[in-house]
From TrEMBL:
Signal peptide: none annotated. Transmembrane segments: none annotated. It comes from Acinetobacter rudis CIP 110305. It comes from the Bacteria. GO terms for biological process: DNA repair. This is HAD superfamily hydrolase. One of its GO terms (cellular component) is cytosol. The lineage of its organism: Bacteria, Pseudomonadati, Pseudomonadota, Gammaproteobacteria, Moraxellales.
Length: 229
C-alpha cells in the first residue's frame, strides 16, 4: 500500500516534548520573572492564565504572539536551549525504514515557522519528508477543520490513504472528523514525564516509533484480505 501517506506530528511525536516542557513550563517563567522583576510564583500564575485562555488556538503556537503578550523573546529562549532538542525513541530507524519501503511521509506541525526551522536545523528530519508544513502558514491549527481543508487544497490527498500519528487528542479528533481513520497516538510524548496509561489515551498508541511498522503491516494485510475477499 505504497500510496499510503504517513502524516506525522513533530513535537511529542517525532521529537521529545521534554524540550518544549523545559521552555514553556520552566525557562519561560524564569525569564519572565527576570524581565518583569517579579517572583517566580507571580510569573507562573500570570503565564498560566494566558495558557488557559489560548490553549489549542493558533496564538498558542506563535512565538511572536507570546513575545508580544508576555514580554519575553520566546524564540530567542528556544535558541538558548536548542541543545536539548532531541528525537524520540525509534525516530530515525522508522524514517529510514519508511524511506526504504517507499512510503510517502508528511510533517504537519503546530509549531510556528520560526520554531519549525530551529528544530529542523537541529535534527535532520527534512530529507525524509515530501511535505513539511507549519499550521501558521494556514492561520488555523490542526485542531481546526479549516487546517485540513486547506491542507487538502494545497496538497491533494484522500483521507482513506492516510495514517496520522500525533500525541494530542484534540488534533486526532479533528483528523477523525475530517475522515482520516488510521489514527495513532504516543504513549510517552515527553521523556521527562510518566507514560500515559491506556485509560488516559483515546486512541491506539505506540511508544517506540518503530512500532508503527507493525501497525502498517496489519493495515496492509487487511487491505489485501479485503481485495481478495
Ligand atoms: Mg505534538
Amino acid at each position: 500500500m505504497k500510496d499510503t501517506i504517513i502524516m506525522f506530528d513533530m513535537d511529542g511525536t517525532l521529537l521529545d516534548l521534554a524540550f518544549d516542557d523545559l521552555i514553556w513550563n520552566q525557562q519561560l517563567a524564569i525569564r519572565h520573572a527576570e524581565n518583569h522583576q517579579c517572583s517566580l510564583e507571580q510569573s507562573q500564575t500570570s503565564l498560566n492564565q494566558f495558557y488557559q485562555q489560548h490553549k489549542h488556538t493558533i496564538s498558542w503556537y506563535s512565538s511572536d504572539y507570546w513575545t508580544a503578550t508576555v514580554g519575553v523573546d520566546v524564540l530567542q529562549l528556544q535558541y538558548d536551549f536548542k541543545q536539548y532538542i532531541a528525537p524520540r525513541p525509534g525516530c530515525f530507524e522508522l524514517l529510514e525504514q519508511l524511506h526504504k519501503q517507499g512510503y510517502r511521509c508528511w510533517l504537519l506541525t503546530n509549531a510556528d515557522q520560526a520554531g519549525l526551522k530551529l528544530k529542523l536545523d537541529q535534527i535532520e528530519l527534512s530529507p525524509y519528508f515530501e511535505v513539511i508544513l507549519s499550521s501558521e502558514q494556514f492561520g488555523y491549527s490542526k485542531e481546526h477543520q479549516l487546517f485540513w481543508q486547506k491542507l487538502q487544497a494545497l496538497h491533494p490527498f484522500s483521507p482513506e490513504q492516510v495514517v496520522f500519528i500525533d500525541d494530542t487528542a484534540p488534533v486526532l479528533d479533528a483528523a477523525q472528523q475530517f475522515g482520516i481513520q488510521h489514527l495513532l497516538s504516543i504513549v510517552q510524548p515527553s521523556s521527562g514525564r510518566a507514560a500515559r496509561t491506556a485509560t488516559e489515551l483515546d486512541y491506539p498508541a505506540i511508544q517506540d516509533l518503530t512500532e508503527l511498522l507493525d501497525y502498517l503491516g496489519k493495515i496492509n494485510t487487511k487491505v489485501k484480505h479485503e481485495q481478495t475477499a
